[in-house]
């Protein structure tokens, strides 16, 4: 009897220990090993009772800080100070520059369309754009600014309020990093280090100061990780409590928010999903958790982490659809059924038709009164994405004996399979035509040019004839395969003489074709790219009682699913190269950045903080190496994972490493255009991982020594931030300092755009003329970009460049693909780059334009003086030599073609270094050089 008796040990630690003290009192005791000290060790009966209630082993469900955030009052004060510092860093000079920066071209334009309720298509979900639009709306923006070009000055736009949204979310990311590491049981010093690393990370600062989407994305990623860590701590102590449900539900809402900003949020969902699977797998092996309790855990997570994010995501799109109730420039990407849910759409049946391409997003078969510059030089045929009268065609029977088809007096006849037809363009009265000429872009033997040929009253020829092949009908309409029906009949058009099929693909014509989609006649046509359908049709002889085929207007789910497919297709199609794109292998090494803005001898260039960046990359590699080493040791029989310290840091660092990997490696599978800012969510995990490694390495050191090491790292991070801060804020900088800051040759920000000395910024302010040895000349010819020639001291041509009269540097383009309907912008390049690398265009021969030479400029060449004399004779006005515009007598120099034709001269030309140019002299110069105007 006594041999079977086992006395129970007293509770440990004793009630008087520091673990039983109030949290604020416990701050004076040595910090516990684990983040949530147990009040007592449970005996076997208590463990069974706790397990029966769903509590994890070793916990009784007694009171403890919600989410495991056992943070003292002193830490809250410290965190408040950190937030103030972060706000100062990110909100400093937020109103500068006062012009459009990088992708503000796109996202500012989307805000305008939201306010004007005009439908558009973007490759990103709507949440971040809606937040920016809300700020603009609250501050009275009317949506009239076009955000057309980088560098365009803001007028009547609350751009500071719009920039404030990503800036404040960037500030909020800082305390989240602190709280996340504290929830992961890292020391306060470690959390402080992480928060200051993120505060002074140049790339995150630059991205959060403009109307861009990546700052909201990183914020919601950080919020999701923090809420999930809080839930995991709650799950260890008191599952299915009100706090437990709160943390889990908030985690699901945050998952919905992160994927509603950008689809990159799917990687965050994968991170949390993988962690959930590990939890459920661990519970499945715990015999103290009954199958019924495990099923409760499973369905609770499925509800909050799958259903709640999906509902949140769809609600964002419902708001999107409710706001964009009117048609806009995004219509052409959507189906006809979708378009007719927007305002101003009607449809009927007849013989004047609009024909749409099925497979690509090009839109309608289109023609306009402009000819091809090559081939037959006949009228262009294109695909155009918007509704327009140039999309209208009349269908005629091609079997008549060369006589004009009288559709008003002929009996009504429906189009049947293999009927031979002609298509006449209603505006220009020319026929859809093909012949043995190569297309202007796809110059291959198996493709023929498609053009519009003929004249009013001309009956056409055999090259205008096409056979109708109905290839698919609607199951709801049995007649749709027997005769041509609007919307429901899908057909191909086979050329009568050559046998090729009317075809289109995602190849766009050059500027002379207005960059509309190319249409050809393809003998080896991909089936899907040669299928068409008739969207609208009218005929004057149809009785009012004639059967009409109407759209079945899609509901929310149909519209939602169609838009997801369009976004996916458009996103995958962003494969064009960009001057500042980069591939994932270069991101952890910070090989290059992105040029955001160049103007007034200032520049904004996205580049990270090298110290923070490389330290985080080192931590990622170090964890992978050590984890692999521990696995090898385990194979040899070592029991490292029996050590509680190893288990703790392996779980902590492993979670952050998996988060980094899932946000980084999927980009290697993408063929689309990628940029450095796509690495920012992965960078967040890498920074937290570097601080977790710091926590492990310094775990055996005294707190004061640990704090001193952290202080050194923070000082280095702040110094690196300050060293490159002019590129983040677009503030004055000198060329020499810029050159010294180029630690890598691949960092391609342009130091030639900065002045030699800070005093030059103070003398004339923004846009002042550089030193005399670098003359920048004003030009005659009105507003816009005009060609000029600059001469050196010997009168020789030094460079040819295109100078924008409003801004000194050549303005460039933001990331292409967001605004899939906008005009294609140009690359950002500095003046020196453009001068040294003129664009490869067809040379245009034209006269040079006279320029004003300042007194400090080089001596005017003799030949130029002769032309000045001619100008004097023409104007018959006595003018001093130094006040006249000088002209070069070089004969027909080859200069860069202007980007836009200059407007006629106004009453006064732009002021040069010597003031206003004489009006009569300007007119005389224009007569002397008529080509320059």
UniProtKB/TrEMBL annotation:
Question: Per the database entry, which stretches of residues form a coiled coil?
Answer: none
Biased-composition ranges, Basic and acidic residues, are: 866-879
Pfam families named in the record: MIR, PMT, PMT_4TMC
The UniProt keyword set, sorted, is: Endoplasmic reticulum, Glycoprotein, Glycosyltransferase, Membrane, Repeat, Transferase, Transmembrane, Transmembrane helix
How is the protein disposed in the membrane? Multi-pass membrane protein
According to UniProt, this protein's pathway is: Protein modification; protein glycosylation
- Note down the stretches annotated as region Disordered: 1-42, 865-919
Query: What EC designation does it have?
Result: 2.4.1.109
* CDD domains for this protein: beta-trefoil_MIR_PMT1-like
**Domain MIR residues, every copy:** 344-398, 412-471, 481-537
The residue ranges crossing the membrane are: 119-141, 161-181, 188-205, 211-231, 243-260, 266-286, 298-317, 611-630, 651-670, 676-697, 709-729
- A Gene Ontology term for the protein's cellular component: dolichyl-phosphate-mannose-protein mannosyltransferase complex
Q: Which reaction does it catalyse?
A: a di-trans,poly-cis-dolichyl beta-D-mannosyl phosphate + L-threonyl-[protein] = 3-O-(alpha-D-mannosyl)-L-threonyl-[protein] + a di-trans,poly-cis-dolichyl phosphate + H(+); a di-trans,poly-cis-dolichyl beta-D-mannosyl phosphate + L-seryl-[protein] = 3-O-(alpha-D-mannosyl)-L-seryl-[protein] + a di-trans,poly-cis-dolichyl phosphate + H(+)
| Entry GO MF terms | dolichyl-phosphate-mannose-protein mannosyltransferase activity
Question: Low complexity bias: where?
Answer: 898-913
Q: Where in the cell is it found?
A: Endoplasmic reticulum membrane
Which top EC class applies here? transferase
Q: Which domain of life is it from?
A: Eukaryota
- Chief location of this protein within or outside the cell: endoplasmic reticulum
Family statement: Belongs to the glycosyltransferase 39 family.
The record's function comment reads:
Transfers mannose from Dol-P-mannose to Ser or Thr residues on proteins.
UniProt name for this protein: Dolichyl-phosphate-mannose--protein mannosyltransferase
Native species:
Panaeolus cyanescens
């Amino acid at each position: 009897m006594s041999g079977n008796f086992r006395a129970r040990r007293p509770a440990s630690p004793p009630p008087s220990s520091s673990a039983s003290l109030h949290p604020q009192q416990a701050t004076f005791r040595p910090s516990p090993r684990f983040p949530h000290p147990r009040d007592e060790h449970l005996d076997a009966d208590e463990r069974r009772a706790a397990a029966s209630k769903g509590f994890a082993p070793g916990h009784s469900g007694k009171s403890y800080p919600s989410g495991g955030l056992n943070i003292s009052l002193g830490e809250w004060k410290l965190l408040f100070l950190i937030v103030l510092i972060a706000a100062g860093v990110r909100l400093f000079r937020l109103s500068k520059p006062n012009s459009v920066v990088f992708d503000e071209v796109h996202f500012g334009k989307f805000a305008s369309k939201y306010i004007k309720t005009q439908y558009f298509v973007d490759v990103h979900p709507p949440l971040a754009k809606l937040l920016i639009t809300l700020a603009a709306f609250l501050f009275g923006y009317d949506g009239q600014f076009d955000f057309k070009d980088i560098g365009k000055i803001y007028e009547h736009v609350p751009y500071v309020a719009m920039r404030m949204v990503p800036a404040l979310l960037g500030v909020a990311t800082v305390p989240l990093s602190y709280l996340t590491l504290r929830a992961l049981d890292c020391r306060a010093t470690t959390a402080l280090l992480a928060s200051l690393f993120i505060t002074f990370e140049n790339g995150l600062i630059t991205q959060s100061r403009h109307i861009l989407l990546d700052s909201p994305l990183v914020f919601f990623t950080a919020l999701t990780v923090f809420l999930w860590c809080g839930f995991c701590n709650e799950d260890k102590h008191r599952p299915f409590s009100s706090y437990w449900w709160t943390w889990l539900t908030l985690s699901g809402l945050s998952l919905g928010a992160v994927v509603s900003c950008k689809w990159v949020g799917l990687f965050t969902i994968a991170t949390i999903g993988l962690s959930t699977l590990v939890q459920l797998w661990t519970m499945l092996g715990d015999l103290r958790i009954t199958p019924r309790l495990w099923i409760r855990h499973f369905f609770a997570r499925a509800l909050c982490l799958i259903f709640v994010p999906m509902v949140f995501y769809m609600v964002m799109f419902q708001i999107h659809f409710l706001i964009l109730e009117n048609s806009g420039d995004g219509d052409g990407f959507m189906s006809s059924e979708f378009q007719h849910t927007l305002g101003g759409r009607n449809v009927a049946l007849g013989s004047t038709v609009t024909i749409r391409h099925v497979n690509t997003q090009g839109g309608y078969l289109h023609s306009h009164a402009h000819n091809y510059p090559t081939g037959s030089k006949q009228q262009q045929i294109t695909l155009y994405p918007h509704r327009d009268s140039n999309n209208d065609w009349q269908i005629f029977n091609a079997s008549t004996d060369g006589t004009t088809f009288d559709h008003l007096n002929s009996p009504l006849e429906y189009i049947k399979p293999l009927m031979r037809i002609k298509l006449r363009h209603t505006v220009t009265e020319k026929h859809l035509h093909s012949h043995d000429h190569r297309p202007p872009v796809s110059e291959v033997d198996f493709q023929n040019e498609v053009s519009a040929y003929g004249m009013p009253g001309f009956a056409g020829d055999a090259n205008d004839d096409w056979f109708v092949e109905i290839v698919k009908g609607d199951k709801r309409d049995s007649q749709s395969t027997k005769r041509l029906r609007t919307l429901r009949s899908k057909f191909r058009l086979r050329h009568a003489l050559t046998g090729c099929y009317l075809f289109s693909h995602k190849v766009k014509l050059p500027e002379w074709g207005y960059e509309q989609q190319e249409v050809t006649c393809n003998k080896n046509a991909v089936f899907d790219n040669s299928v068409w359908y008739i969207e609208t049709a009218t005929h004057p002889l149809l009785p009012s009682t004639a059967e009409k085929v109407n759209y079945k207007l899609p509901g929310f789910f149909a519209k939602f699913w169609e838009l997801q497919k369009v976004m996916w297709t458009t996103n995958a199609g962003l494969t064009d190269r960009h001057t500042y794109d980069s591939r994932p292998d270069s991101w952890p090494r910070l090989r290059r950045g992105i040029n955001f803005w160049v103007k007034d001898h200032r520049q904004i260039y996205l580049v990270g903080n090298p110290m923070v960046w490389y330290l985080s990359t080192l931590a990622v590699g170090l964890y992978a190496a050590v984890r692999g080493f521990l696995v090898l040791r385990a194979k040899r029989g070592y029991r490292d994972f029996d050590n509680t310290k190893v288990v703790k840091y392996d779980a902590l660092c492993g979670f952050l490493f998996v988060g980094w990997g899932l946000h980084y490696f999927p980009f290697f599978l993408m063929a689309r255009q990628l940029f450095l800012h796509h690495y920012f969510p992965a960078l967040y995990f890498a920074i937290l991982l570097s601080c977790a490694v710091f926590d492990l390495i310094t775990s055996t050191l005294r707190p004061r020594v640990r704090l001193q090491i952290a202080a050194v790292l923070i000082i280095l991070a702040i110094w690196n931030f300050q060293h490159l801060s002019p590129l983040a804020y677009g503030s004055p900088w000198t060329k020499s300092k810029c050159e010294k800051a180029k630690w890598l040759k691949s960092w391609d920000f342009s130091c030639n755009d900065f002045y030699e000395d800070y005093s030059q910024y103070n003398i004339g302010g923004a846009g002042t003329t550089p030193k005399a040895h670098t003359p920048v000349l004003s030009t005659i010819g009105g507003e816009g970009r005009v060609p000029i020639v600059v001469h050196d001291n010997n009168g020789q041509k030094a460079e040819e460049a295109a100078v924008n009269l409003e801004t000194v540097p050549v303005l460039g383009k933001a990331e292409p693909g967001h605004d899939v309907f906008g005009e294609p912008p140009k690359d950002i390049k500095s003046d020196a780059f453009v001068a040294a690398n003129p664009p490869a265009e067809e040379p245009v021969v034209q006269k040079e334009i006279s320029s004003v030479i300042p007194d400090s400029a080089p001596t005017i060449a003799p030949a130029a003086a002769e032309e000045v004399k001619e100008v004097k004779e023409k104007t018959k006005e006595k003018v001093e030599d130094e006040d006249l515009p000088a002209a070069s007598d070089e004969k027909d120099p080859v200069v860069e073609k202007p980007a836009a034709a200059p407007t006629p001269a106004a009453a006064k030309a732009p002021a040069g270094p010597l003031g206003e140019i004489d009006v009569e002299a300007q007119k005389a110069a224009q007569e002397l050089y008529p080509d320059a105007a």
